[in-house]
């Protein structure tokens, strides 16, 4: 049986597609499954160098996380993966009661016994940096945007579910159960591989829950990747972080340090009408909606979508209207009204958005679509009943265009863009049309 060396689980779908993109661009045969694959699905996939599962742990409570990740960990360990990457958002948005990274690490380390548990603290290509354990992030991924300490970030400090009020990742994760998290700061990388290895060995003597590694640039990632490869060759290893974990793994392989496929390669223009569903509440997505001049924009009332008595009727009316426009060849952008969003409605709203996406794609001629919002993407794509995603192209840093693999021929082959709330330039939805 084919044994993929690298395995990853994305705590939401958008982030999982970014990791998929980085591995695929490096020439690694990679497939992102939408559920844990059985032997039949693995046979359908063919030989793989890396395997992923797109999940929704970021929106789960601790009990649900443990139940899902225990199955994932056992499956990846049984496949013989050398690295188990628990992929989190590059801003580490999580909390003790929802999306707890501490719960994830406590669950997965039972299947990956290496005493070194790597926590990669930044992703420079998305302008996320970790220095002396402090996390910094730009307002978006484009060059030149202002960078904030994460507890002062204009979006993440006010996140509706997991606001971040502590920039020190050791303290942030301590609240999630990682009481003994060590740290390797950026100064250790310049002393050479042998000195870094000794430094890590010294830090492991206290049996920490994990070691947090600073990241400022690609050179730091390469040093981390070389260490990971060395230690994973001895014993399977658990790593936690954004797609920078995959970047580190690739950069440490001299044969793959330069991408096989350039990030500058863009997709062809869309053939036929395009549908976009924006469930994100971020200011960045709001600006992208405003700039989407080529679309017929349709506002969705969140309160009506989740209403227990009238929700289904409202949802069906919206689907009918959108399908009619798409059949006329018009592009449609559906978005939830921020002003009408109710506190605590996140999961129910994401599920309703999933039902809307499924209804539109099955009844319309759409072959390219986009979903904005991490939780929205996770629930929406799972509702389709597809089984995997493969990478097609990169639209912007952190935003991949993927091919949907489904048994239903109406869905198989659809090109799907999944994006987090802060990702992409203002013109992203227009670029989804033009490539």
Automatic annotation (TrEMBL):
Domain Four-carbon acid sugar kinase nucleotide binding: 276-429
Domain Four-carbon acid sugar kinase N-terminal: 7-248
InterPro entries assigned to the protein according to its UniProt record, in alphabetical order: 4-carb_acid_sugar_kinase_N, 4-carb_acid_sugar_kinase_N_sf, NBD_C, NBD_C_sf
Keyword Hydrolase: no
Coiled-coil zones: none
Keywords tagged on the record: ATP-binding, Carbohydrate metabolism, Kinase, Nucleotide-binding, Transferase
SUPFAM superfamilies per UniProt: YgbK-like (SSF142764)
Membrane spanning stretches: none
Record family assignment: Belongs to the four-carbon acid sugar kinase family.
Name of the protein: Uncharacterized protein YgbK (DUF1537 family)
The organism of origin for this protein: Paraburkholderia unamae
